[in-house]
Design goal:
Layout (H helix, E strand, L loop, with lengths): L1 E11 L7 E6 L21 E3 H11 L5 E5 L7 H11 L5 E5 L4 H4 L3 H4 L5 E4 L19 E4 L2 H7 L11 E6 L2 E6 L4 H11 L3 E4 L4 E4 L2
Parallel strand pairs: 2-4, 4-5, 5-6
Antiparallel strand pairs: 1-2, 1-3, 6-7, 8-9, 9-11, 10-11
Bound molecules: iron/sulfur cluster (SF4).
Length: 211
Amino acid sequence: MKIGISRLHFPVTTLGPGKRIGIWLQGCSIHCEGCISVDTWQFGINSVSLEEVKILLELWLPESDGITISGGEPFDQEEALFGLLQFLRPYEKSILMYSGYSFQQLKTKKEICNGWIDVLISEPYDYKQPQTKALMGSDNQQMHLLTDLGKRDFESSLEKSPEKKLDVQFEKNTVWMTGIPSNGMTEIAEIAKENHIYLHHTQGVIKLQKP
Ligand code: SF4
C-alpha cells in the first residue's frame, strides 16, 4: 500500500506531551486560508510504501512517548491512514491526530469510534479567530479525548494556554519548524529580518538566504 508522506520527524516536543513522532501526511483538499503548511496540500507527490514507513517508525517507537499525525489532511487518504493506525496501535503510545474536517463530519468514522486514535483536534484552521488554546492554531478548533490513554496524556492540555514553542530542524538550506507559531510564519520572518536574517517563506516552507 502507498501512503503520501510530507515528512516524518523525531523527536517532536511541541505537539503533545513528551518526545513524539511527528507524521505529516501529504495532500489536503480543505485549503484553509492562512494555513502554514501549504507545502502539504498537493496530492500525488511524496508517495511511498507504507512498509518503508513502518521500518523507519520501528526505529523511533521504542524511544517515543507518543505519535502526532497531521498534514495535509489525514482523512483525505483514509485507507492508508487506517493501515498506519493498525501498525501503530499495538505500541500503546498516545496517538494525537489533527484534522481540518468538523467533528460532525468525522464522529461516525471507525478511527474515531473504535479507539484507533486517542485524541482528535478537529475543525478547519481559521486565521481570523483568536489563538488562546494549547495545541490549537485557532479557537474554533476542538480537542476530543477519545480514549483513557488520550485522557491520561492530554487532559491537562485542556486547561493550558499555548506555550508557543517551536521545534526547529535544519536540512540543507531548509528549516522545518514544528509547532504552532503565534500569528503564523509572517511574524517569525519579520522578527528574523529585524535581526538581519532574511527568510523567504511560502507559509509552510522557509528557506534561508544570506543577507
Ligand atoms: S490547516 Fe490543515 S486542514 Fe487546513 S489547509 Fe492546512 S493542512 Fe489543510
